[in-house]
Every structure is written in structure tokens, then in C-alpha cells.
Amino acid sequence: MKKEKTTQLALYEDLVAIAWTNVWKRKLRNGLTILGIVIAITTIFSLISIGNGLDEGIRKEFEEIGTNRIYVTSSGSSITSLQAGLTEEDVKTLESMNEFLWVTPYLQEKVTVEYANKKKVLTVWATTTEQLEERWDDINFEIEEGRVFVSGEKYSTILGYKTAHEIFDRDIHVNENIIINDKRFKVVGIFEPIGNPEDDSVVELPLDTVQEMFGKGDQVSIIELVVKEGVDLDEAAKKATKTLERKRGNDLFEIVTPDQLLQQFSTILKIINVILGAIAGISLIVGGIGIMNSTYTSVLERKKDIGIMKAIGAKNKYILFLFLAEAGFLGFVGGVIGIALGFMIAKMTQYGAAAAGFQLLAVEFNWKIMLFSLLFAVLFGITAGAMPAREAMKKQVVDVLRK
Prior knowledge:
Layout: H1 2-25, H2 27-33, H3 35-65, E1 69-74, E2 86-87, H4 88-95, E3 100-115, E4 118-127, H5 132-135, E5 143-146, E6 156-159, H6 161-165, E7 177-180, E8 183-191, H7 197-200, E9 203-206, H8 207-213, E10 219-220, E11 222-227, H9 233-248, E12 253-256, H10 258-301, H11 303-311, H12 316-355, H13 367-394, H14 397-402
Parallel strand pairs: 4-9, 6-8
Antiparallel strand pairs: 1-11, 1-12, 2-10, 3-4, 3-7, 3-11, 5-8, 6-9, 7-8
Helix pairs in contact: 1-12, 2-10, 3-10, 3-12, 3-13, 10-12, 10-13, 12-13
């Protein structure tokens, strides 16, 4: 029995060697055959790597900002698209609650910034000047040069790193003046790089000044709530919701926790991955048809070989294994090349994003994703080659040799 098992194993090893030799002999044809698999695996591996890198970058960013924060926006708004609808009365209502260490209002608008005879439309974030340094103490709003606003300051500005160093023809420095919506402002501070173009291109202004410039009265776009240590975040959010509803007499606002924000970003990433995954699926279909066609052609070309193998005693399962092994090798080679190209594309995307000022994407080689992609490619190749392999197995010795 042991000797029989050893013989069987040696036979399968020989069949694997023959399958690899057959694949290698037809380099050109098989190269074209695996192209579809290469494109599909490249797309899948690069998408998963980029998606994981972006997800990890966003999570790290939230960790730096802190998980002790709650955000209040008006109905119909989102973190990426804010609308005014809250007021300073809402701020006072929330300040009266014991659960929060800081209640910080922000107003978002678009402004025209002029410097060195060049004008640019940028996003302005306006906030209170009261104890601003303490409010920003535990988040990554670090000042590279200068300082934050002092209480009562009106015509001063803090600029994002990109605003100060890249957007205009020459760098803007602390204590220089810039024109914002035809009003002169003194630059009192410049932020360190945050990691994405939008935040690094910001212009920070005092809240009262922007409300006056745009005729917004006491309106604000978003309110940031910093929960005191030991207070449950979700319970604080529920209590804030009830308190605001009772005071306002309506529920035309939304309260969002960090977990909810992460879920929103994850949902967006999933939608993008599904769309691009469908494109990869088309490539897989093309690759599968290519492997199937190549295996069928190989069966037709090697009828005589199949007949001889059967004539000398080769069983159907050995014929089946031989052609499945060839199809699996096509998937394996396509998978290896696809993984290499996919990782290169993912890293190039990371470097391109970093060059554009987006630092959140951090692509790392993941062995689990690599093994999954490679196994998927091999199994897909075997599946695509199954039908032609069965046809080869069913051929009768007499019919094959007669032809």
C-alpha cells in the first residue's frame, strides 16, 4: 500500500512537470491568454491595497483628532458639504450641559484671497477666538510659525501650509498682510502640514469677522463638542440631541459621532470598490474565456498524445489532472504578474497623492491579500479550464488514434 501511494505521488509529480513544460513551450499564445487574468488581478490587488491604505489613513487621522468629539450639523449637511443652519443660541444651549469640556462653533465659506497680485478662491473656516489654544490643544492643528488667535482679534488670519507655501507665486510669512474679500488681514500664524490638500489650503478667520462679512448674523455651519473625560460619548450625543430638540422646538439638525463618520467614509469606499470591482470582473471573464479557449486548442492539438497516454494505461483522472494543472499554471503566472503590477500601481498612486499634498494614503504590502489574490487566480484558472479538461478526459482511445 505504501509503495502504491509513493508511485501515485511520483506520477502526479510527473504530470505537474509535463503541464509546466507544455505551458512554457507555448509562451506567446499563453502570454496572450493570461493577459486578461493579469489585468483582473492587477485591478483587484491595487484596489484592495489602495482601499485598505486609505481606510487605515482615515482611521489614523481620526485617532489624532480624537475619539472624544461629537459634531453637530444642520439637516441636509454632511462633514464634506456644510450648510449654515445652526446658531450661536445652539452653542449656548450646548455650553450649558455638564458633559462637554469645549463647545466650539465653526462657519465655512468661500473667499477670494489676494497676494502678490494673484487671486485665488479658497475655503475659509471661521471659529471663536476665545481660548482657542486650549480648544486645539489635543488635536493635530499644530502651528508651524506664529500663533493662534487671541481673544477679541478681528482682522487676523491663520493660513494652511499649502496656502502659505504653494498656492501663490511666493511664500506668505507671519506678519505679512493679505487681502480677503477686499479687506486687509494680518497673517498671525501658519499651520503645519495636516496631510490632505483641502485642509492644507484652508484660511482660518475669526468667527465674528466672517459672520459680518457675509451677513450671516449669528449663524454657524458646525459645532464641535469635546466630551469630558469619563463621559460616555454615545450617551452625551443622545442627551445633546434631546436638549437641542427641546430648546429649538425642531429636529432640523444632526449629531454625528466619530464611529458614524468612519462608517460614512467606509460606505463611500465600498461603493467605489464595487464599481471598480465590476470592471475587474469583466477582465476576469475575458481572462477565463482566454484560458478556456487555450485549453480547448491544446486538447485539439494533442489528441494523438491523449490517445497514446490512454493506450498505455493512463486513467481518465490523470488526463483531467494534466489539463487542469496547465490551466492552474496559467492562472498562477497571471496572478504573480498581476500582484506585482497591482502593488506597483498602488504605491505609485500613494506617491502621486503625496505629491499632490494628500498624505492620508499609506499603502503597505499585505501578505493575506497577496495569498488571497494568488489563490483566487489559480482557482479561477482551474475553473475556466475544467470544461475543456473534461472533454479531453472523455475521449476514447480508438476514436482518437483513428483520426
